[in-house]
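Example for tutorial group B:
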């Protein structure tokens, strides 16, 4: 996250990681946003060093990059980037909940953030899908079909009959994103069935779940 040394020709040179890049830009006076995605997927031991970095002191953040700046009396002097707080905004995002490979966040690190919760409700999902259809020139009836598909899949998840229901990411990227023509909807949906089913001990998709989703696709997206 901070950076690393790497051999370049006959030299060892330092490559900034995203945190050092952001800190260096902010230290130079540039208003900078550091966005860290899937934050709780980072192992806790790897985020330990962020507690000090993300705690401002007298109006500044201090980022110790581990880059050797000089050597004095045989001891390496590590680079420290001093960043005015007003020049750097730090935003982290993560999916939290069942099925996501997340770790518990260190409470001391969590306290350094304002914690917000965002959930893509149906109105928001429909708005996003509508925008994509308008951009691609697809009829808006496709949006209604996708929302009906989502509703029926969520019901089957609640009843414990299938593993996963489609999210906004599935519908926007895996469905609409792969469609070239409006008539591609059912075909594309059938290519995505394995996103939503369980696999048996032999590594094969559970046939009953596959057939159930095929029926839902035929009922809602055909």
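The residue assignment follows.
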């Amino acid at each position: 996250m901070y950076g690393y040394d790497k051999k370049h020709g006959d030299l060892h040179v330092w490559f900034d990681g995203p945190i050092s890049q952001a800190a260096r830009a902010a230290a130079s006076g540039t208003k900078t946003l550091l966005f860290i995605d899937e934050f709780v997927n980072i192992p806790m031991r790897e985020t330990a060093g962020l507690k000090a970095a993300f705690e401002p002191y007298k109006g500044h953040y201090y980022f110790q990059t581990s880059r050797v700046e000089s050597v004095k009396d045989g001891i390496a002097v590590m680079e420290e980037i001093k960043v005015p707080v007003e020049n750097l905004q730090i935003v982290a995002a993560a999916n939290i909940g069942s099925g996501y490979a997340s770790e518990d966040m260190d409470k001391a690190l969590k306290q350094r953030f304002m914690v917000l919760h965002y959930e893509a409700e149906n109105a928001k999902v429909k708005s996003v899908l509508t925008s994509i259809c308008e951009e691609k020139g697809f009829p808006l009836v496709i949006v209604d079909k996708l929302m009906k598909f989502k509703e029926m899949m969520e019901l089957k998840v609640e009843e414990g009959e299938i593993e996963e229901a489609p999210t906004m990411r599935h519908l926007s990227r895996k469905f609409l994103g792969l469609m070239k023509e409006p008539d591609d909807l059912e075909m594309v949906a059938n290519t995505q069935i394995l996103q939503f089913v369980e696999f048996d001990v032999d590594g094969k998709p559970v046939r009953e779940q596959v057939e159930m989703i095929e029926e839902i696709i035929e009922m809602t997206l055909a």
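The two ends are 46 Å apart (CA to CA). Compare this with the pattern of hydrophobic and polar residues in the output above.
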